[in-house]
Structure formats: structure tokens, C-alpha cells
Amino acid sequence: MKFSEEKIKEVEKIISHFPEGKHKSALIPVLHLAQQEFGGWLSVDTMDYVATLLRIEPIEVYEVATFYSMYNLTPVGSYLFEVCHTGPCMLNGSDDIIKYIFEKLGIKPGETTGDKLFTLKTVECLGACGYAPMMQLGKNYREHLTKEKIDAIVEECRNKIIASN
Amino acid sequence: MGRKLLLDKVQIENIRFYDVYRREGGYRSVEKVLKTMSPLDVVEEVKTSGLRGRGGAGFPTGLKWSFLAKPEGIPRYLIVNADESEPGTFKDRYLMELLPHLLIEGMIVSAYALGSNCSYIYIRGEYSWIVDILEQAIAEAKNNGWLGKNILGSGFDCEIYVQRGAGAYICGEETALLESLEGKRGNPRIKPPFPAVKGLWDCPTVVNNVETIAAVVPIINEGAEEYAKIGIGKSTGTKLISACGNIINQGVFEIDMTISVEEFIFSDEYCGGIANNRKLKACIPGGSSVPILPANLLLKTTKGNQRMMTYESLAEGGFQSGSMMGSGGFIVLDDNQCVVKHTYTLARFYRHESCGQCSPCREGTGWMEKILHKIENGKGKQSDIDLLWDIQRKIDGNTICPFGEAAAWPVAAAIRHFRDEFEWHIDNPELCLQKNYGIANYAKPIEILV
Amino acid sequence: MSAPKQIFKVTIDNITIDVEQGTTVLQAARKIGGDVAPPTMCYYSKLQGSGGKCRTCLVEIAEGSKADPRPMPKLMASCKTNVMDGMVVKNITSQKVIDARNGVVEFLLLNHPLDCPVCDQAGECDLQDLSYNHGKDGTRYEFERRTFEKEDIGPHIQLHMTRCILCYRCTYVADQLTNQRVHGILDRGDHSEISTYISKAIDNDFSGNMIDVCPVGALTDKTFRFKNRVWFTKSLNAHRNCDKCCGQVTLWQRGNEVLRVTARKDEWNEVQNVDGKPGWICNDCRFEKKKTSDWVIEGETVINRHSVMAQGKYPGLIKPKETIADVMSGRQPKLLMDIHDVSDVNEPHIDLSLIQGAATSKTFDKDSKQPT
After folding, report:
1. Which of A147, C159, C179, C332 is the most buried (most CB within 10 A)?
2. Can you give the residue ranges of every domain in chain A?
3. Higher pLDDT, C321 or A8
């Protein structure tokens, strides 16, 4: 397990944001990078690699990785639907969206489809309360969700997978 | 039309990019302070403006800046808190997405005032596309000589970096943010020492909200006295309100703090009234942590005065009959909504987000969530309501950081003002179990004063 | 270079004392001692950075200082609040404090398994003492308690996470006494746990001190596990020449067998200072030296006030007057009674002392004869 040359440069750039000796500050962004590079989740090997890279103890990485909710500590599907269900989204029908995803894909929060394509996760407030209901998909937010939009998103993901094969 | 100072140019096409922003008068404030003002002048100017922290606590910004320790030979840091995670709040995101240069301009001016040569924007991890927007804007600013060494020949150096979080509401608490920025778990620190003395890497640090820093720009451009003329009393200037829930126009609005709550909810310029022809039932006016108010107390104070969108007026009546401006996350519930369920989702949020460091919060938030879940699902007992009250009371004020209060207040206010709804849930378990979530036609109708 | 430290006056529960600038409220209260000292579950004076988390030592600051006598709006963690000159503190004289402390005890016990009958810490557990003093009878918690999977962290130390109250003390021990920390706090909120994440053995010369600082039975000594209840053991101060640590320990014996070795504790249940430094002991002394001959015995240990054994073991304890011996001119009570005097029923015609072997019902048959 190793970052590519290019990613190593990115890590060095992140470290350069901080004063000499404060390279531990790079941990959170480097973990993001590692999760993105190594299969969408953080295995023990991945975390140990990050520890070596930043010259810190592995436990310091485990402590941080388990604290923040964006790090996946178990494998997830190719597309992770993170649907917000806190107050304002609930007021705008997030429960219906979660229910619809279950009807459509047969997965409950925390589950992955058999083909390992989709994982559903319920999350707490993502700061899109005025555009509810919403979910995070990869880097972006999908807002004002409706059943039709869910259909379209699922379609879009499936097409992407087909295109990439 | 209210006065707009932050969002006045937001409609201009491509204002996100440097060329347009500069053409529209951007970075004037940096020129002004670097050429004509000393750092102390800037701090005084911000003090005079009456600007109060826009992140939630409402602490006077100039005063906060004046507390910053200035020991010789130790760097000082300005941190922008963009870890916007309070349910109901999405104003900083709007500002950063559409006007990234406004934030950067404000940061340069503020960093100059504080003597900080290196500043960070700590942004919540989920806003990952905004990181790109900000980094691009920083690169543009740097290419045009607004960042880097010896800016405009003034001798002042300034660098800005963006740091992403990874999903933790608690990192919006300033000392937890600093821990996170140091690459650790977001456990709030015990204060004192305050960040102004020992902050990032033990150096003197100021942490300010995105909107607060952006507001420094119009203060410098218009002059502090002009800025202070807007608003009522100690609520000076303009405030971004992110309105959501059951209203017609959800979104971010800039208000000058002179309008009433009623006008804000019902006028077409702002929320445009309640959606789906329903009635206003309740509102959380300042982000999920502040007390919920039923319509009658929201629109008028117990003294019979119009309630205004100001720090003071929203808080009038204390927690008995008032609420708070908080972060400006304005959540509206129509008469079809269930306060018990809403409170449950908030309790679940707080349980999920508790860092787990101190015992009242770690254990208390989980306990409250379980009891509310039980009541929501028709398995509650009448004595559970008093138990909830007692639990929130024992969390409130006894924790390391203000998260304890943030978790306790929503539960307390829901019980204080909507006890009948809790009782209904307990007395009608079958109806609760129909899973017809959100239908709250059982609740005592609230007399609406408008 | 540095100016001499100023002396501040502080009043705690109506008792005024002088302390040096920089003293915490808790240290000042401990100087007064007794009930005035707030209980602590996470603070440990010998571990830098500890404290502030459990919230059991909250006190009311009724007057901030002579210069600014305004009260502090919230209760403050006494372990993390420095004394100011003229400060007035209320601990057990404040109903607010008592109330908050009762709340904290309830929170700490919420998910604690209360398996004291099978817990090795029972009898010397800070949480037991705390709940005895501040807890309620019964619980208002009606949900399933949180449990954790057992994790093996090596041959000497047992980690029982379900009992943990997350004081963080053991992580400070690992940071400050050992060269590498392999365990830490994982996850967050009410799912937080102490773990190595990868079930790694915590192996270090000083790791055993984690057992001594643990306020509950979350970290216990595997070599002592289920060997005996602490209150049946005899504790002796002993020492040996050790090239790793101070070698000054407490031996816990049953008969002549050394069941357990710990560091010596002071009256606050913290490791005692030896020559001005905390008397941490190494794993060799703790786990490997289990023979009396390994040690030079100094004498009986002064048991700290936290221990249930303290009742019988305080040196110089005045026992109740032996009335019977007094009345019966020195004869011991057990010699006073002849069973025949007590009851008519007990009048066997057989002299019990002459029965050979075990007595059976036949021995007392009416027809049976006095054995010779």
C-alpha cells in the first residue's frame, strides 16, 4: 500500500500548510485522501500507512479516524448515499426518502446492496436545511430530493459503473 | 427593502471570481487598512461598530480581539470557523459558495488587525466542493498580490490555508476546533486558558465565524459609525438568517436588525409565509440549540410588544417566554408538525455528536434520546416527562463546553411549551404507533395572534 | 528570575486557608481535608493534563476574588480552577453542588454494570465509594446497559471496558510513563471506549501502573484475578532494590502467599510520592516478584480512607470498650457460657468431648451409653 507520486506531493503540500514540527495537523486531510485512494474506507493497513507517513503512533490515527463520522471503518458500496434525517430535513420528508430507497434498493440504513453498488447511511445535519430533503453523494450534495430524483440518481450511478467497465 | 451589506452584490454574475469581485469594488478595505490605518485602529473600528459574533454566542467581536495576548516572538493565529453544523444553519455555506472573496478580504483585514501572518479556514468536511472554491479564490488573491509577503508594500505578510474537518458538530466549539486543527480528536479544552492566550499550538488565537469576518469588510468600507447606525440597540448591522422548515421561501436572507419576526416570516421579501396554506405552529429562531417558541410567544413578547429580529428582542422574557438569536438558523414548524418527533430528532443529533469526554453530556444525551424515542413510539409513561426535565437540568451548566446547554435547551423548551403534546403521545400509544409521523392534529390548537 | 509566589486566601465551606498562587481549588480543599475535599474520578495529581472530565468535583464559586467578588455563573471543576485571592468556594455547603454531584453519580452509574460481587476492584473502588456517598437507591434508567466486546491486551492486564467511566487516566499513564502508547480513546459520545483497536498487547515496563490509576474495575491485575477479595488480604509495605523503579510497594498477602503487588497509595487513593516523585512501580516488581523472599517487609500498610478495609486497619483506631470482659473481671466472653446454662434442650447425657469420631443421631439415642 502506497500513495502514488502525485498523491505524495499532495500530502507534502498539506504538511507545508503548518509550521515545522506540527505535521500532525495534516492527519485529517491525509485520512480523507487515503480513504479516497484506498477503496472508500480506512482499513487498519491504510491507517498504519498514514501513521508511518506522518511519523505518528498508529493509535493516534485510530483515535482520530474513529472520532469523525466521515471516515468509513468498514467497506462501503461504490456509491454511498448519506441521507440527512435531522430536524429540518425530517420536517421536509426525509423519512419518506429513506423509505423509498429501501423500497427501491432493498437496503436499510447501514446496509449495502448485494452487488456492492450502493450503501445507505443516515447522517445528522449536513447544513443544507433550506434545500431539504437532501443527501451527500461523493463530493456533492443532492438537494430537494423526491422519489423521481432518487430514481434518476440511482440510474446515473448505474450508468457510471457501466461506462467505467 | 432592508439594507444589504454582505449580499448586496450576490446576484452579480461570476462575482465568485476575482476579476468580477475586484471590478465591483472588492479588496478596497484591504487597501484602506494597509495604507491608512494601524492594526489598533482596525480593532477600535470593529469595537465601535458594535459587531457581535455571528456564530451563535453573540460576543462583541472587537472586545474578543482586544483580549488577544501579544507576547514577543510568538506567532498569533486567526482561525475562521466554517464548521457550520448547527441544524437549521446554512448561511456560511451560502456566503462561501457565492462570495469566497468577501471572506478572504475580511480575513486579510482581520489578520492585519490581529497581527496574524498565518490564518486558517476550518471548514466542515462535508462541504468538500466549497474547499475547492475557497482554494481557487485564495490562489487568485495570491496571484493578484493580496496574499503573501509584503502586501501592497506595507510590510504585512499574510497566508491563508483551508483545513477540512471530517464530520463532527463539536468542532464548531472553538477549542474543539483547535484540537481538530492540531490533528486530534475534537475534544473541547477546559477553559481557562482561553484561546486568546493559549490557542492553536499554545499560541494566542482568535476564532471567528465566517459571517463575522465577512462583516468586517463593510465596517471598514462604510465606517464603523455608519454600520452601527443600522439595527436596534446592541444589535448593530445586518445578520444573515438561514430560514428553513415549513415556509414558502427557504433560503438565506440578509436582514438589517430592525424588522419584526412577523414581517420576516410572512413578508414575500423573506420567508413568504407558511407553506401549503398551513398555520404557524412553532419556530426555533436561532439554530436547533436555542429554545423553541410557540407561535404566540414567537410573534409577541409577554409584555405584548412585537418581537423583533434582534439579539435582545428574541431573548426577551428569558427562557420562560423567550429564545435566542443564536446562529440565525430559523426553523419553522407548521401546525401539521409534531414537536415530540422534532425534539427526538434533535436529541438524536446531540447524542450522535457528543464528544463523550465529560460524563453528564456523554451519558445524559443518550438517555434523553432513548426516552424520547420511547415516547415517540407510544411506549412512554407520564413520569418520563419529569424525568426528561430532570436529566436536561443536570446536564445544563455542568459540562466542559456549551454543548451541554445546546443539548439540554431544546428538550427543556419543548417540554416547557408543548407538554400537552408529550402527554398526548403517552396517552395515545396506538395512534403514535400508526407511524403517521408528523401528523400532529392532536395537539392543543395554538392561538395565533396574526 | 521568577518572582516569589504570592500567598492567596481562599475560603472553602467557611474554612479559610492560605495557599500559594497557582494552587487549584481542589488542592486547597485537600489541604483542609475531610469532607471539604471534593471527590474526584478523573483527576490525578500525578498525571499531567488529567481532570475536568468526570464533573464530580464541581464546586460553586460564590465570590470570584477580592478584586472581583462576582460569583461565577456556572459550577466549576475544582481540579481545573485556580484559586484567586479572596475567593469564596462552596462545596458541601452548596445545595447546587450536592444536586449536580448526585446527577453526575447517576450519569456515571447509568451504563456501569454494577457487577461489584464479581469485580476485583470491589472494596477499593472509587465509584463504589462515590455512589455510597452521593448515589440514590434504585435507578431511573430502564434501558439495556451498554456493553463492549472483551479485548485481550496482554498477559498481565485485564481490560473490562464495560466498567470503564472514561476518566482517561490510563492514557495519560501510557503517554507520560511509557515510551509508546498503543491504546487510546476510540469512537465518540456514549460509544467511546478504551481500546488498542487491533487487540494489541500493552507491553511496557510501566504499563502496570494503569491498573493503579484506574478508579474502577476496568483495568485489573490478571495475576490477582479472582484470587481473593481484597478485604481478606493483609497489606504490608515492602521494598526491594530495583533498577527500573523506586521498588517501594504494598504487598497483599493471604497467609504467607503474596497475591498481589501494587504501588503505595496515599489518602486520596493516588500513588504515593517517593523522594518527592510519584512512586510508580515497574512491571517486574508488580507481576514477577510474588515471593515474600523477594521483598524486605517494612510493616503494616496504612490503608487509605477509600478502602472498605480501612475500618479495621486504621492504626491507632480506638475500639469500643469490651464491656463483658470488664464486668466478668477479665474472663473472655467465650469462656463465660456453659451450654447447659443457656437452654434445657441442650442437656446431652453424653459428654461431647468423649465421642470418638463424628457424632451421629445414634450417639444421642436414649439407650446409648457414654463412650469410654
Report:
1. C159
2. 5-67, 79-164
3. A8
